[in-house]
Amino acid sequence: MKNKLALILSFCMVILLMQTVHAIPPTDIENIIRDISKDNVENILKKLESFQTRHVFSSDKEGFGIKAAADWIHEKFTSSSPKLKVFFDDYELPPQRRINRDVTMRNVVAVLSGRLSSDQERIFLVNAHYDSYARKTDDLFPKDNYDNPAAGVNDDSSGVAALIEMARTFSRFEFDATLYFVAFTGEEVGLIGSTLMAARLKEEGKTIDGVITLDMIGNIEGGNGFIDNKRMRVFSAGPADSSSRQLARYAKRIGEKYFPSAEIDCIFRADRFGRGGDHTPFVLEGWPGIRMMEANENYSRQHTVNDTLDNMDLDYCTRNIRIVSSILASLASAPPSPGITSERGRALLGRGKDSYSAQLRWNPVSSDNLAGYKVYWRKTTAPFWENEVFVGNVSEYTLEKVTIDESVFGVSSVGKDGNESQISAYTMPPRSKSTYTIK
Ligand SMILES: [Zn+2]
Questions:
Q1: What pLDDT is recorded for position 202?
Q2: Which residue in 116, 213, 232, 249 has the fewest CB atoms around it within 10 Å?
Q3: Residue 281 lies in a domain
Q4: In the chain, helix, strand, coil percent, each to 5?
């Protein structure tokens, strides 16, 4: 009897282990979404507000200023789960540009390692900035006293709350991909923390499969008088089928799949006009990056003493964190995107045997979670994919009598649990300028 019990128990263990080594099903993504807690978000925002300012040059005092805030974020990540590898990502900087003194730039990082081995590692990096900045009550920017109040609750404790709450929730599950949750410093004085970390990761030879910046995700009352708690904006750098643009389309598709009443509004532009965000340095390193944020901004609150918890909408902020969670969990659970170029970098798109069809080929992905591939196409003028077909576990597919001249084509990998990768789009090869010698 005892043996039988042991056998049943070990069988159950095997089932449990089998479950943890597979990517998570969409039902678990729904569990993650449900687990994001409005109360936790509120408590995190209150705590971050209590440091009074998080200006990069603020004083180092107990319970006050940026250093105390960094320590608290580190502690919060650490106490969330032993599975998170938490560390400070420090850079010692001499005076330069907008920095008028020696300063330690300190990003706070929590890494949730994926189950894939290092040679197959895929990384998604979700980030926000924890430094703050505010004009003084006389409307002047601080030049000498960096301890002036700068609560920065919406900008960008709202994003940091998302990181802390997502790190806690996600660490209850196992994913194929590795997830970086990064609270950047120095955003307000020139995207410094993100610029330095992007360069460091590049130097270390890392590849980042997607960067999601969350910066101001909790305000619903625009300074223009509009109130909008439905839309969330996604900014992405072009051109039309850049990897950032694909990530933005993915964010829209997945976000609206899990939240049909939300509107994920893609803005086909790197950021707000003339502005920048922490995704930008990663995009400049060649990685896909998007900025997700509220629908309407309020400049009478932004970078002022009025950026307080009272001026935030907690329901909207929490819903936005849940939307981002559905996107990140889908990305981290899906197989990798298929490669669609030859070794020489040419798009594997041809005209087929009859010369008038669209013949798509791709490099098969290596994943024990793969069910097959989906082919997508749309008119060159259409912003979003218009047609899709699941084609099974093959590495080529021909759309008969569809010309490759008038449509954009793409292919994604689909996991056994239904999670789908970003779409790899076949882009037109650039032509280089020719020169001729004249007699
Ligand atoms: Zn910001």
A1: 98
A2: 116
A3: yes
A4: 30, 25, 45
CATH number where 371 lies? 2.60.40.10
Expressed in angstroms and rounded, the spacing between residue 200 Cα and the centre of ligand 1 is 22
> What's the CA-to-centroid distance between 217 and ligand 1, angstroms?
10
State the total domains in the chain: 2
Percent of the chain with pLDDT strictly greater than 90? 87
Residues 228, 364, single domain; the answer is no
Q: Give the residue, 367 or 232, on which the prediction is more confident.
A: 232
How far is CA 394 from each of CA 25, 259, 373, rounded to the nearest angstrom? 23, 32, 7
Ligand 1 centroid – CA 248 distance (Å)? 19
Whether residue 112 sits in one domain with residue 181: yes
Domain that holds residue 258: 22-333
pLDDT, position 247? 98
Ligand 1 centroid from CA 276, angstroms: 9
Do 133 and 53 sit in the same domain of this protein?
Answer: yes
Distance 188 CA to ligand 1 centre (A): 7
**Residues 260, 170 within the same domain:** yes
Do residues 246 and 204 share a domain? yes
Contact assessment for residue 232 and residue 293, using Cβ atoms and an 8 Å cutoff: yes
β-pair partners for 64: 61
Average pLDDT over residues 363-377: 95
Q: Does residue 5 carry a pLDDT above 60?
A: no
Same domain, 135 and 256: yes
Average pLDDT over residues 144-166: 95
Whether residues 308 and 358 share a domain: the answer is no
The least confident of 31-35, 115-119, 346-350, 430-434 is: 115-119
Phi, psi of 406 (to 5 degrees): -115, 0
Q: How far is the CA of 215 from the centre of ligand 1 (A)?
A: 5
Q: How far is the CA of 342 from the centre of ligand 1 (A)?
A: 40
